[in-house]
From TrEMBL:
The keyword DNA-binding applies. This is TetR family transcriptional regulator. Residues 31-91 form the HTH tetR-type domain. Transmembrane segments: none annotated. Keywords: DNA-binding. Residues 54-73 bind DNA. It comes from the Bacteria. It comes from Alcanivorax jadensis T9. InterPro entries: DNA-bd_HTH_TetR-type_CS, Homeodomain-like_sf, HTH-type_Tx_Regulator, HTH_TetR. It holds the Pfam family TetR_N. The lineage of its organism: Bacteria, Pseudomonadati, Pseudomonadota, Gammaproteobacteria, Oceanospirillales.
Length: 227
């Protein structure tokens, strides 16, 4: 499946935004060539998978020389790790924004769950590849996954406690994040995307979180619809 120009533009906007933040934090400048390699490599990994992708495939897609490629990356895994780090950092930016704008614990649950699924869907098929790779403890992606879960669970623990007055074990929210992660893989099961699965997973995830954290659940969230 080919990405449309609007899809590429959306990906480019995300990549450039996060790389600008990285450059400021590291005291450097964002490289446009590096950005283009990352942007076009997403489609290659999504179509071919990690094992069937070679550096030459990435060179062809991004239209850069081998010399330019190795100026910024060691190998194809280094590219995938950079893409995943961008995904994680942008996800956390959206996550913090939703938590900050929420006016209740229920808002936090609903808004962060929605932004989690929306962002995963916006990344397309490559998200399944990266998530499966990141779950391996020996993968270069694994530390970024752990870091994201640490940050997100700490934010949820402190902010939801602020509204409910309860002191939660952080593992409660890490468990919820594991659940969301598994749901995201389920949405892209069999190599495709299912809007029906997305709607169901979002509804059930919110229902479980409300029941677990608030002790109550909005009617209809966990019941099977009557046909």
């Amino acid at each position: 499946m080919q990405n449309s120009s609007s899809d590429i533009d959306a990906i480019r906007q995300v990549v450039n935004q996060v790389l600008e933040v990285h450059a400021r934090e590291e005291g450097g400048q964002r490289s446009q060539a590096r950005s283009e390699i990352l942007i076009h490599s997403m489609q290659v990994f999504a179509q071919r998978g990690l094992q069937r992708t070679t550096v030459q495939h990435l060179l062809d897609a991004s239209d850069v020389s081998r010399r330019t490629f190795y100026k910024y990356f060691r190998n194809k895994m280094d590219v995938l790790e950079s893409i995943y780090r961008i995904f994680v950092d942008n996800m956390l930016l959206h996550f913090h924004k939703e938590v900050k704008q929420a006016s209740s614990a229920r808002d936090i649950i609903r808004n962060t769950t929605k932004v989690y699924f929306d962002y995963h869907v916006s990344m397309g098929p490559i998200i399944r590849l990266m998530m499966e790779e990141a779950r391996s403890s020996t993968s270069a992606l694994a530390p970024h996954r752990v870091r994201a879960q640490d940050i997100a669970s700490e934010v949820l623990t402190s902010q939801i406690s602020r509204y409910t007055g309860k002191s939660y074990e952080p593992l409660v929210f890490r468990t919820m994040l594991w659940m969301l992660e598994n749901y995201s893989l389920y949405i892209f099961e069999d190599g495709g995307f299912s809007q029906e699965r997305l709607d169901l997973c979002e509804k059930v995830a919110i229902g479980i979180a409300e029941s677990l954290v608030l002790g109550e659940v909005t009617p209809g969230m966990l019941e099977r619809p009557v046909s």
